[in-house]
Design goal:
By secondary structure, the protein is α+β, with helices and mostly antiparallel strands. 52% of the residues lie in helices and 17% in strands. Pfam families: DUF6338.
Length: 230
């Protein structure tokens, strides 16, 4: 049995068939983590992509190691590049089907949708970055921009958040007024979070600039009135 496997290029033939499916499966897991898949589901995914790649490369049968650089390049394209292209096409088709309402979103939780979809596709969802006001279970609030070096853990791991540059809220903890000087970010564990309000960073920044300008004008007017009385 083992001799038959290794005879006549058996190893390279099996590798050319199975590795593309494994590569595609790992790419899918990395792009949209689905937790610990059942072995049967993982095997089915690997087998499906392996068969598709084999069909696309039906005229190329590997019975020995590549003899030339051209053959080696073809093997690498078959094993690594082809499954990458298939995964991209699969994701495009999946997103299209979700937008049409034909299937449900592949994101397992709203948390994953926010940080693995909404945050990384500003053009699609028409925003200028995400600004978040996090209300903790003790009632206190933390405000900041979800931007580099911000990070959020995704399924299947425990949820936590590293929020980017912090902002100061007004005395009522309602309106962001200015960025905290020297801030890099803050770590927040999901177990301490009551709610997260997500805002358009561009709108928040514009409102803060207008608010600061209004405050400066009001201050200048007050000073002018005092000088007038004198």
């Amino acid at each position: 049995m083992s001799k038959a496997l290794f005879a006549n290029g058996g190893v390279i033939a099996w590798a050319a068939f199975l590795v593309p499916g494994f590569v595609a499966w790992r790419l899918l897991q990395a792009r949209r983590p689905q937790g610990e898949q059942k072995a049967a589901d993982a095997i089915a995914t690997i087998a499906t992509f392996s068969v598709v790649v084999a069909v696309l490369w039906f005229n190329r049968h590997w019975t020995s190691m590549p003899a030339t650089w051209s053959d080696a390049a073809q093997l690498l394209v078959q094993i690594f590049v082809t499954p990458l292209i298939l995964v991209v096409l699969f994701e495009v088709a999946t997103n299209f089907a979700v937008e049409k309402g034909w299937i449900t979103s592949p994101h397992p939780r709203a948390w994953d949708f926010i940080f693995n979809e909404l945050a990384i596709k500003p053009e699609k969802y028409e925003h200028d970055g995400l600004f978040m006001i996090v209300t903790l279970k003790d009632g206190s609030k933390i405000a900041g921009v979800y931007a580099a070096p911000g990070y959020a853990s995704l399924w299947p791991y425990d949820r936590d958040l590293f929020l980017g540059k912090l902002w100061q809220l007004d005395e009522n903890d309602q309106r962001p007024i200015r960025e905290v000087t020297g801030s890099i970010g803050i770590y927040i564990d999901e177990s301490e979070v009551q709610s997260i309000e997500v805002l358009n960073y561009g709108s928040v920044l514009q409102a803060a600039i207008m608010g600061a300008a209004s405050a400066d004008n009001a201050s200048s007017g007050t000073v002018g009135e005092e000088h007038g009385r004198e």
